[in-house]
Structures are given as C-alpha cells and as structure tokens.
Amino acid sequence: MMMPENHTLQKKDIKHARIKVAEDGHVRVLVPHSFTDDDISALLTKKSKWIAKQRAFFNKKSRIELARNQLLLFGNRYSYFYDDTYSRKILIDHSFKTIRAKKDLLDPAIQKKWYKHEARKYLVSRTEDLAERLHFKYKAIYIRDQKTKLGNCSYDRNISLNWRLIKAPTLISDYIIIHELVHTKIMNHSGKFWTLLKSLYPYYKDAMNWLDKYGNCL
C-alpha cells in the first residue's frame, strides 16, 4: 500500500493496531499481519484528527539549537574546546561559558557519562540543601536515566531525578526537586499538593512553561 508522506507502515505479530507520532512529525503505523489495505486506510482516516493534533503539539515546541562544539549546561550553551593541558580534570568556566578537557566530550558515550557525573554532583547537593531549607525529609536520592520522567518520588520517600536536568536552567531543576520533595508529604496531585508547591516555589508556572516549550531538548 502507498502510504502518505512521512508515514511508515509495519506489519507485526500484534493483536491491535497502533499509531505513533514522533517529534519530527513522522508517523509510524503498526498493524497486525491480517490488516488489509482497506483496514489501514480506514485506520488512518479514523485517526487523522488525532495525528494532526499530535503534530501540532510537537510543532509548538521549540528547539535549543547547538553548534557542533556546544554543550547544554544549566540552560546555557557552553563551547567545548579540546585541551591536552588538562589530562585528568575538566575545566568549566561559567563566566565565559566554556569547557576545556582532554576528554572528547563530543563523543556521545563520553558526553553522557560526563553529564551523569555532573548531574550527580549538583542535583544531590541541591536536593539536600532544598530539603533542609524547606523542612522535608526523604530516604534516598537516585540519579536515573528515565526516558520520559524528569523526577519521581516513591511511597518509601525515595527521590529519583533524571540526569538530563543538568542541562536545564536551575529554575527547572529546582522546580522538579521541590515538586518531588512535596510528594514526600502528599503523594497525589490534589489541590492540597499544588497549594503547598505554589507557596514554596512561586515560579512554578514559569518552569512549567519552559518545560512545555523546551522540555524535548533535554
């Protein structure tokens, strides 16, 4: 069957058809082997408004464009320079927004490992500071590699934070940390939860707006 532009069809051993819309607008259609061309056409017609809605949602999001030698750190673009002067350490200059290191931080695997290291250093310390200042107690904190969530709080009051928060402005990481700290007392998103969060972090709407616009860049 001839699919519409930017659509990919896959027949798989599944019981029910599924449609996935990627952030670039590409539509992936997964159907059982038993589906005929007419079945596929009917499915696309039925889901056409939903597909358009998903594409519109992603189109509203903005991207933070980075040059080839740039890294995103605390919501800012930092220029990376290879420098064999620093054989072991990585030198970060927050004033001039530069990073110098012998390590190749443009290599995806090395870059991810470095981001995780920086995230652990900053996010753990920041969570400890905010918890003490705002009078919250938690059991443990973990830096995770979650695909969709930026933070989570378990019923045992264990807080998990996504390492990608190190890329975001501190406005955002503070919001996520306080959000999860509030969950140590209120596990749901009731009115009581939001009232407490607003009283502790009046910039929460600015943070939510930034995440709506740039969250896909993390």
Q: Can you tell me about this structure?
A:
By secondary structure, the chain is α/β, with parallel strands linked by helices. Helix content is 39%, strand content 22%. The strands form three sheets. The protein has a four-stranded mixed sheet with strand order 4-5-7-6, with no helix packed on it. It has a three-stranded mixed sheet with strand order 1-3-2, covered by helices on one side. Helix 3 crosses helix 4 and helix 4 (170-183) crosses helix 5 (191-200). It is globular. The model has no long low-confidence stretch (mean pLDDT 92).
Helix and strand arrangement:
Elements: E1 7-12, E2 18-21, E3 27-32, H1 37-46, H2 48-60, E4 70-73, E5 76-82, E6 91-93, E7 98-101, H3 108-134, E8 140-144, E9 151-153, E10 158-162, H4 170-183, H5 191-200, H6 204-214
Parallel strand pairs: 1-3, 5-7, 8-10
Antiparallel strand pairs: 2-3, 4-5, 6-7, 9-10
Helix pairs in contact: 3-4, 4-5
What is the structure about, briefly put?
The protein is of the alpha/beta class and 218 residues long.
β-strand amount: 15-25%
Instruction: State the order of secondary-structure elements, H for helix, E for strand.
Output: EEEHHEEEEHEEEHHH
Inertia-based shape: globular
Query: Number of helix segments?
Result: 6
- Overall average residue pLDDT: 92
Given as residue ranges, the uncertain stretches (5+ residues, pLDDT < 50) are none
What gap, in angstroms, lies between the N and C termini? 37 Å
Helix content: 25-40%
